[in-house]
Design brief:
single chain, mainly alpha, 3 helices, elongated
């Protein structure tokens, strides 16, 4: 039994990983920052360039505490 990996299958896995990491980072960062656009772009960049860094970035947002608003 041989396993062949074609480029399309690898690309689909890569894109699925990127989408999962960006969406989970946004979910973790919601309520903890006011600039979700910047968080999502950094997560997208990290997932595209060096995907283990996107895991660390997502984990860092999951461990942060929510922001307290002093002046509402």
């Amino acid at each position: 039994m041989t396993m062949t990996l074609d480029f399309n299958f690898i690309l689909e896995l890569y894109l699925a990983h990127t989408a999962i990491m960006v969406l989970s980072t946004i979910l973790f960062a919601k309520g903890k920052t006011t600039n979700l656009t910047q968080v999502s772009l950094i997560s997208l960049l990290l997932a595209a360039v060096f995907f283990p860094a996107s895991w660390i970035y997502c984990a860092s947002w999951s461990f942060k505490s929510k922001q307290r608003r002093i002046f509402s």
